[in-house]
Design goal:
The chain has about 240 residues and is an alpha+beta fold. It contains five helices and 15 strands. Strands 2, 5, 8, 9, 10, 11, 12, 13, 14 and 15 form a ten-stranded antiparallel β-sheet that branches. A three-stranded antiparallel β-sheet has the order 1-6-7. A two-stranded parallel ribbon has the order 3-4. It starts with a helix and ends with a helix.
Length: about 240
C-alpha cells in the first residue's frame, strides 16, 4: 500500500512529481463541468494501419459502428469504400487524434503518445477502470453543404481484467471505502469505443508483489482533497506538444 501511495504522489523525489497524478488532475481545474477542452495540436491517424492496440481488432469498424449508433437519427453512415448511393462515408481524413483532452476539469491522455501516457488510465461509468489507447475527434462533413458538420469526441479503451484467483489482501477490510481493485497485470479486455463523456475520474495504479505473484492494484482518488502541484506554463506545454507530434 505504501508503494501504491508513493506511485500516486509521483515518486520519492519531489522533482519527479511534475508529471504526478495530482498535477494532471489540477491542470484542467478551470474547465466548466460537462465541457471538453482540446490542446492546440492534433494529428492524422489511420485506424486501419497504425498500431494502436495489441491484437487484430478492426478499430475502423469499431469506430464506424459506434458513430452509426450515435448518429443513427441523422444519417446513414457507411464505410468509405461503400458505393456513394448507400449513405455518407466515414472518411479517414475526418478523424483526428489528440494526445489528451480535458473533460470535467480532468485530463485524459492517449496511451500511445508520450505526452498522454501519464494519464492514460481512468474510470468509466463510476469505478470501472480502463486504459485509454487513443482519443479521437471526428468531424464529419455532410454532402449537403446546407447541413452543419457532425462532431464527436470519443476514446478507444480497454477494460481491466479482474484476477480470477485473487488472494486475501491486507487491505480487504477497507477495500470498498478506499476504492481499491485488484487486477491481472498487463491483461486487458478487447478494445471498445466510448464517448469521452463516459469518463468519470482518475485512479492511482501500482504493481504489487504478494505471495510470489504480481497484481495491478487500483485505488480511487479523491480529487477534492488533493493539493495541486504547480502547472506547467502555457509556452512550455505548447513546445512539448509540438515536439510530441
Amino acid at each position: 500500500m505504501a508503494n501504491l501511495l508513493t506511485n500516486y504522489l509521483g515518486g520519492k523525489d519531489k522533482g519527479s512529481r511534475r508529471n504526478s497524478l495530482p498535477k494532471t488532475m489540477a491542470s484542467g481545474s478551470v474547465s466548466e463541468r460537462g465541457t471538453t477542452e482540446y490542446p492546440r495540436y492534433s494529428r492524422d491517424i489511420n485506424l486501419n494501419t497504425d498500431r494502436i492496440v495489441d491484437g487484430e481488432a478492426n478499430l475502423y469498424a469499431l469506430l464506424l459502428s459506434h458513430l452509426q449508433n450515435v448518429w443513427r437519427d441523422q444519417l446513414v453512415l457507411v464505410p468509405e469504400t461503400a458505393p456513394p448511393n448507400l449513405g455518407e462515408p466515414l472518411v479517414m481524413s475526418s478523424i483526428r487524434a489528440y494526445r489528451y483532452v480535458t473533460f470535467n476539469g480532468l485530463q485524459y491522455g492517449s496511451g500511445i503518445k508520450h505526452g498522454g501516457f501519464p494519464y492514460c488510465h481512468g474510470y468509466i461509468e463510476g469505478h470501472v477502470p480502463v486504459r485509454i489507447a487513443v482519443i479521437l475527434r471526428v468531424k464529419h462533413i455532410r454532402p449537403n453543404a446546407n447541413l452543419p458538420p457532425l462532431e464527436h469526441t470519443c476514446a478507444i479503451v480497454q477494460r481491466f481484467v479482474r484476477h480470477p484467483n485473487t488472494p486475501s489482501m491486507p487491505w480487504d477490510l477497507h477495500a470498498i471505502d478506499l476504492g481499491i481493485g485488484v487486477w491481472n497485470v498487463d491483461k486487458l479486455h478487447q478494445p471498445e469505443v466510448i464517448e469521452i463523456t463516459r469518463m468519470s475520474g482518475h485512479f492511482a495504479l501500482g504493481t504489487v508483489r504478494y505471495r510470489s505473484r504480481s497484481f495491478w492494484v487500483s485505488m480511487s482518488v479523491c480529487h477534492d482533497a488533493q493539493e495541486p502541484d504547480a502547472v506547467l506554463n502555457v509556452n512550455a506545454e505548447r513546445n512539448e506538444e509540438e515536439d510530441d507530434l
